[in-house]
Amino acid sequence: MHSNKKNIKARKDIVKNTQSDHLLFILVSFLIIISIIFSYSLTIYTVEYYEVGQYYFFIRQFLVGIVSILIMWFFSKISPDILVNKVGMTLFILFALIMIIMPLLPSNIVPSIGGASRWIKLYGFSLSPIEFFKIGFIYFLSWSFHRRIIDVSKKITFKNEFILLFPYFLTFVFVVFFVAFLQKDLGQIVLLGFILFILLIFANRSYKIFLFLGITGVGILVSLILIFPYRLKRIYSWWAMVQDDILQFLPYWMEHYLRIAEIPAPYQVSHSLNAIHNGGIFGKGIGLGDIKLGFLSDVHTDFILAGITEELGLFGLFFIVFIMIMIIWRILKISQRVTNQLYHLFTVGISLMIMIAFLINAYGVSGMIPIKGIAVPLLSYGGSSMISMAISIGLVLSISRTIKYKNKKKS
Predict the structure, then answer these.
(1) Which pLDDT band holds residue 66 (cuts at 50, 70, 90)?
(2) Which terminal residue of the chain has fewer beta carbons within 10 Å of its beta carbon, N or C?
(3) pLDDT tens digits for range 306-319
(4) How far apart are CA 206 and CA 204, in angstroms?
(5) CB within 8 A of 34, min separation 6: which ones?
(6) Torsion angle defined by CA atoms of residues 98, 103, 104 and 108, in that order, rounded to the nearest 10 degrees
(7) DSSP result, 225-237
(8) Are residues 35 and 378 in contact, defined by beta-carbon separation less than 8 angstroms?
(9) Among 400, 379, 404, which Cα is nearest to 389's?
(10) Quick check: helix, strand or coil at residue 265?
(11) 381 Cβ neighbours under 8 A, 6+ residues apart
């Protein structure tokens, strides 16, 4: 009788959550609103260059933002047992097939922009399949690791563990071929490679596999850089810009081997750094920045952090970084509390996708690493990036409905 009373009390202390994470929804919606504001503020010159209306980019981003918020809200109301599997697997299969057939499509549908064919253009709209495939890829890894990998002992031989993981390695090789070779998008490969590597850690794999993956990954990365001369030139250009700052901390004799002849610093990064410098602590004010006046064509997309910093200053940048950290923290908190291993891996993967994309962009814009064409999650102008992020956050919000809280510590 005494034991039954304890069990009843324990059950009363656990409250099943029936609502999604409201704070996460508010934080993400806030970044979307900031993106809409700067889609107007940072495109003053761009609208003149493309000869479109003054509110062209603002209206498009406003509509995309509203749709994105509605997607998150709608997904947050649906049980993940109904939603996550269908959406995740559909994104993986559908957009994998789209990327496979893209090289076969005519140039008027898949145009080459800057030597890369990453977009599908139809009826005035552009679609970037890789943005949606990333979510499907994370779901596929989570689903498959949950079914086949996570409960397998670490003590199996390296050969057997390699055979166990070989299908994932093969899948990633196909992704490398279609994304890095055909679409010439190395940044996305680096992002997906990091996600695969870290999810394997959560899947409880041995150190030998990580050593193998690390060596293989570096080899693939170096090969992809050497195969395409423009990537090597980009590395040289970046190193010429930062070598003085780095070599001063290294032994003098290394300078003879590492110093290269001065070549022009990356055009975009130079203007990006100028914008960050000009912004100071509190910025010039919204709408008063200079970088957008023809100096940097991608200021509302890949270089939006530089544009925001010039107008809002370091204070505004730190505030945005704080919001981004809070979003990642809320997702990781959901991941920690969820009991379903598939949902746990998936939410970890989504948090990694946001964090790595933000770091790659921020480090590139600030000149710390060579620049890569990766959008800032939830901030950069563009429908594919924004809607795909809304889908991923919406799935996380759906998963947050399954969390069980202690009655006295509900949060």
Answers:
(1) very high
(2) N
(3) 999 999 999 999 99
(4) 7
(5) 308, 320, 379
(6) 90
(7) HHHSHHHHHHHHH
(8) yes
(9) 379
(10) coil
(11) 35, 39, 43, 57, 61, 300, 301, 304
